[in-house]
Amino acid sequence: MYTKKKYGIVGIIVTIIILIILFALTNVQNSKMSYVENLANKIVMPIQNGLTYIKNKVNGNNSFFTDVSNLKSENKELREKNLKLEEKLRELESIKAENESLEQYLNLTEKYSDYTTVPADVINRDLSNYSKTIVINVGAKNGIKENMTVIAAEGLVGYVISVTDSTAKVQTIIDSSSSTSALLSTSRDSIVCKGVLNDDTQLKAMYIPTDATVSQGDTIETSGLGGIYQKGIYIGTISSVENTTDLTNRYALVSVAVDFSKLETVLVITNE
Amino acid sequence: MNTKRIVINLLFIVTFIIIYFLQSNLFTWFKIAGVMPNLFVIFVLFIGLYANKFMGPMYGVCFGLLLDFFIGKKIGITAIMLGLVGLVGMIFDRNFSKENRITLIVMVLMATVIFEVGEYILGYFINNTYIQIWPFIEILLIECFYNVLITIIVYPLIQIFGNKIENEYKGNKILTRYF
What we know:
By secondary structure, chain A is of the alpha+beta class. Chain A is 39% helix and 26% strand. In chain A, the strands form 2 sheets. Chain A has a 6-stranded antiparallel beta barrel. Chain A has a 6-stranded antiparallel beta barrel with strand order 6-7-8-11-10-9.
């Protein structure tokens, strides 16, 4: 009993002494304690640094995941925008093509204002190497009939050889079955132009009158004879004159005004 | 008619449509000196050679009529000439072996010449075509070369499908394969 009481008093005294020391230490200047602090730092800092490094890493990863999520939504948004822009671009291209086509029609109509015309697009070309017919997208429903003249902005294309309800076949002037009655615009001499089999850009002008003067660069237009083509439609220009020993057999080559390889838009003259 | 034969005939029609689009689109971009091949001649000759007798001429006339309706100047010219190519195929089948690549190339050459010369002559009488011999020969030679080139390329396909069609239609009556 006595021993227990004695230890209790000692404990209290020790505690009080520790408290007094601690109290005294708190009031001592920091500089005087630095060596203790340094020692503690040397022990603790490596651990602390390691822990901080791990913590930073975890925090960094968090931001990485957040960024991925942001990027995904941003990417989705950009893709949608891109799709919309592409759609707009397509619309604009379609409008541009339509505008060009309408412009061509307008130019054609203005150029041939004397004629009543129906505009058309070329939808098919001959599959044979020896024939040069085309198919256009207007037919009987649009008032198209056989033997009607077909023209383009540059000049004469050909005439309608057959018609369905919504299409018409056109025999071009460059087809080897075509014979176009024409006039030399300077001398007003009458000639006949025939299609050349292996050349889409030239016609052979035949039956040139013996007294006619034909020279390179002369322009050729339809004569109106033959009952198919109207008079005065431009065909092309004389590119060369081939003189033969017999003057009646001489012929000339005519460069056609229309580029048949790129022909897309035509007008059918419906005047009768 | 059994299912296999129905499938073969449907395939003929599908092939015709494919060839039509190849001829009117693809080959307008792949011309040799401005000249296109004539796949219809090769195809009708193929039918004449491998399918049942009269199928070549029959398909030739039908395909030719369709082509005349689509783009021809007068109805009937291509029909007559493709029908003739089918008939030529049938005659070749009776008299020659198709197992040799060279023989087949010669057949294609002859069929192309017969078709184009015939069509040009008919065109002269019916459409009043202005005859130009040398340009015609020039185009014909290039076309023959192009057709032969395509035949060489598709020869393995011709053999595989041709033999299947022949087995179906002629069965044990195939004699040319053993000569």
